[in-house]
Amino acid sequence: MSDDECPDSGHVMLISPERVFYGGLLGRPRQRNFGGFAVYASLQGKLRISIDGEAQRACAMAFVPPYQTHSVESDCRSVACLVIEPETVDPAAMAALGARIGGAGEGVIAGRIRRAYMTLLDSGRRDGFTTSEFDTIFFGEALPARSIDRRIARTIVRLNDFSGSAATADDCASAANLSQSRFLHLFKDETGVSFRALRAWKRARHLLHFVNEDINLAHLAQDIGYPDSTHFSHSIRRFYGLQPRAIFSGSRDLAIYRSDPSATERADLRQGRQ
After folding, report:
1. What's the CATH class of domain 12-139?
2. Does domain 148-240 have CATH number 2.130.10.10?
3. What is the SS3 string spanning 44-100?
4. Cα(first)–Cα(last) distance of the chain, in Å?
5. Where are the domains of the chain?
6. Does residue 86 contact residue 193 with C-beta atoms inside 8 Å?
7. What is the per-residue pLDDT across 153-204, written as a single tens digit (0 to 9) for each?
């Protein structure tokens, strides 16, 4: 991709419970607030980003910690964005990655992400990637995993699964053989965020699996655990800065590749400690 090329067509997403890569239209989002670490890379020109109301700055890449309100614009209509779930990565390693992105490593990492994006557009891929493979594609190495209490690791596997009934704090505490108060305290200690906040993010994140489908949004809202369409729209707009209909409208030609769910669940449980 030359410096004067802006890839406004060709949209692709890799998604697993631990990672998301999206290369495609940025749209015109308002402020957004992801529950994961966000890594943005321009596909041509510069990004302009403002984090938590700070002055806007121009850059080739940006690193945004979880649950920080931010807005991003781009010289190019398209952008590359990676989202990394914080409970799956070592906090010190992510701090180091953020420092590299904000410093001397910006050009190297941005170049690698752009090349990976173009390779995905040119050749596509099959479903079934692992977290280690994902990290190596975009960062050149696997990011160190975060070690968390095994009971909390099992809870997170449950929060990632929307095929059954919605998980409540009481249900998860019982499954962990803990009182609800002890469970909620341990959950926040281990993940850095409250159970309620993480559950809200995982629910909104699950929407990404369906954005290229012709689907009834009211039915989807119910299927992924929202009590009604109003709560659904409010939550999606808070996290992504766009209304659900706008997200679906811009994703009609999005190619989505998914991870190997059994491999991801095994990795989740392996990194949990006793």
Report:
1. mainly beta
2. no
3. CCCEEEEECCCCCEEECEEEECCCCCEEEEECCCEEEEEEECHHHECHHHHHHHHHH
4. 48
5. 12-139, 148-240
6. yes
7. 999 999 998 776 678 999 999 999 999 999 999 999 999 999 999 999 999 9
